Each structure stands twice: as C-alpha cells, then as structure tokens.
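Subject: Interface between my chains keeps coming out wrong

I've been trying for a while to get a sensible model of this assembly. When I model each chain on its own everything looks fine, but I need the whole thing in one frame so I can look at the contacts. Pasting all components below, labels as-is. Any help appreciated, I'm running out of ideas.
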Amino acid sequence: EAGVAQSPRYKIIEKRQSVAFWCNPISGHATLYWYQQILGQGPKLLIQFQNNGVVDDSQLPKDRFSAERLKGVDSTLKIQPAKLEDSAVYLCASSLALAGGGRTDTQYFGPGTRLTVL
Amino acid sequence: SQQGEEDPQALSIQEGENATMNCSYKTSINNLQWYRQNSGRGLVHLILIRSNEREKHSGRLRVTLDTSKKSSSLLITASRAADTASYFCATDGSRLTFGEGTQLTVNP
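Reply #2:
Try treating it as a single job with all components included. I did that and got this:
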C-alpha cells in the first residue's frame, strides 16, 4: 500500500514570497490533515478535512495560510506571504475516517516538506 | 499550546537496556497515542490506548495510562540502535494534540 506522498521535500524562499505544498493521501482515506512542526517541537494541527469539507481550521493563520482539497483527494497548502517564523516542516497525514464522538482514527504521515524562509 | 508534555526531553541508553518515557496531559481525553519520528522523516504510529484501558502491549512496547493522574508511559524493552528517534505522545480530544517529544538515543 502506497503511503502519503508530499512534494516538494525541501523549499527555500525569501520572506514575503509565496509557497505551496502538495499532498496525496493514502487511497480511500477520507480525512486529511496538515500539521506544522517547528524544530524541537511536536506537530501542531493547522487544518483537517473530511472528504473536501473543512472539519477544523481553528489553528490555521488565515491571514496568510490557505488550504484546499478539491475532489476530496489531493490537497494543497499555501502560504502567502511567508514570514521567517513559518520556517518549519509541514506534515500531511491521512486517516481512513473520522470516528464518531470526535475520536480520530490512526493517522498515517507523509515525509513532510521542510520549509526555510530567509 | 501543546497539551502533552514528555519527560525526559532527552534520553541516552545502551543497546539492550530498557527505555521509559513519560507523558502528562491536562484535559480529559478519548485516547492517547504514541508516535515515533526518525530524523528528517514523518511520524509513525506506534500504539493507541483508549481512556478505559490501563495497559497495552505491542511487541517490545508497553504503554500504561493513568487517567486519574493524567499521565502515560511508554516502555521500550531490549532497546536497539534502530530505536533511536524522537517519541511523541498525542492526546485525542477533539483533535490530536502532540507533546514536544523525547529524543531517545540508543548507543550500540
């Protein structure tokens, strides 16, 4: 079974530039997550989709971050404009379904995109 | 802010020894999960323990959960150099919330 795919693996940009990350979840997984992991910290959820609808984007800085999941499969995460503090690894994860009662399934993570903002 | 807090932040042991990592959290949870992250790679799910369970085993892994103390521990027995990684607990309330991790180094 193919895992979660992400691209690019690395990206270096200047502050105020724009950047986009792409994620292809495991086939058949309804739920897709984007996390931000700053060096030395645990991942922080940015946004969660179930199919192509947003379940939770409460921690997404909406003034500069946007994400979409057209057709309920692939997803893109965009930062525009980037700031120095956006330097981090951006992880995409997917899970089979969102279980009832707010409980989440086991999440499967991609390798991440390491973003450096200069 | 992160809910889970791992202790210790870093742990260095010799191959064959056991490694114990602890996690404390603040609010009520549905379940608690442990993940491993090798350097520069994504996270791998290790084990999930539900709030009504007290102990769970998977191979060389043993996880305990004490909801009265809001704490969990991960024990890796007979450690190997390949176990070198960061280990994160993640509490599952309405969303999965990760701690800051324990960096485990297993020396050959």
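Reply #3:
Confirming on my end. Chain B touches chain A through 25 residues (CB under 8 Å).
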